[in-house]
Amino acid sequence: MSDHISELPDDILTNILSSLTLRDSVKARLLSPRWRHISAPISTLQFDLFTMFGIEYDENKGYFDTLPANFVNELKPRFLTAVDQFLQQYRAPKIGTLKIHFCLGNEYASHIDNWVAFAARMEAKKIDFYFSSFHQQNENYSFPCHLLNSHLKHLRLGACTFRPSPEHRNLLSSLATIDLSNVNLDTNNDVESILLGCLNLECLVLRNCRLPMRLCIHGHQLFKLKTLIVHQNVPLFPWHIELNSIDLETFEFRGFLGTFTFVAVPCLEKVNMFFFPECVDVLHSVFNELPSNLPQLQNLSLTLGSQNALPIPEIMPTFTSLKQLELSVMVTTSFDLLPIIFILNASPILEKFYLKLRRMSSSGQIQTRDCSNRLHLHLKDIRISGFYEQSNVMEVAIYLLKNAVALERMVVDVKDDLKTREKVYDLLMKEKVNSRVELIVNYEN
């Protein structure tokens, strides 16, 4: 049977290829010699379990961890061959992103180095490589910084070794974003070898990297850095993070930690921190140091949790510029939520307050702390989600209805059932003192 489609002109075949998924495009090139030299412009070249084998996965959940090692090893030769052939036959002048996620180590460096060289030739603006180390018996792939060029703006690496030598640091100067996951940076020399060359870096992300006990980010290294994100989901953590003389605007931290130092960080207006329950003792220093060291802070997001009580001091310095506060609280039925009011009392110009409750199992009676009434003159928007009857969150809601004199809108999402939703609505309507307040009570399934 003759293949009439392959007899079509190149421009029509190019148009057909451009409408295919990358997976189908790879198949077409591998099966037909006529299609191998036809390249439709593709902004993102993505090679992973789904695009190559149709296996759906969530890259944020460590999918390789659930796959049998023998199965992964059987896929490797097919994956390497398919990617190599596709890139060798690709003829478009440029690409935007080269994204490759698979379980590969440094024993496949000859293949991966060619992929990096391909991205450089295609003037790619982003390289996104994640090589899961779960089924690896050999060392992680060592990324070849000497192959980079000035076209690259965004570099994301996972389960790799990334140690630029001094003679290649200048090749990092074009990068605006560096996102590293599971990369070993356990000495300050490792960190500095990266930061010293990144003169135009705007965003630095470090996820589950092995970091030095004292992580120092200084302005003389990073003149343009605006966003710093540090996530540590395992207790391989820095005991101390120091930010000094830097024009950072957003700082996000998740995990286990000792202490923070903020020195001359005048532009930092948004801070997001998630602390695991084992680290609640840190919060006393956070509540005392953040208002003092960051008087310009306008947006604060905290995730708190404890088996006993919320670690919020009754007296703390004033958040003089704070306008939006988001609290995500992991609570038990014996939790006293009233100490949340201490933060509100320390935020005199707060305009928006969002409280999200996450329930943990426990037993016992609520041991409440006294909270004095104080008027909140600027608080206009309040949302409470995860509301459930066994907690004393109703006391918090009633307190806010009575004391937020500028309140315009309160939204409560009830977790229990529709009957509880009606009960909560009736109780809050009785306590509402300002008829102009819009009260919305939803059932959160």
From TrEMBL:
PROSITE patterns: FBOX
TM stretches of this protein: none
SUPFAM superfamilies: F-box domain, RNI-like
Pfam families listed in its UniProt record: F-box, LRR_At1g61320_AtMIF1
Domain F-box: 2-38
UniProt protein name: F-box domain-containing protein
Encoding gene (name): LOC115969621
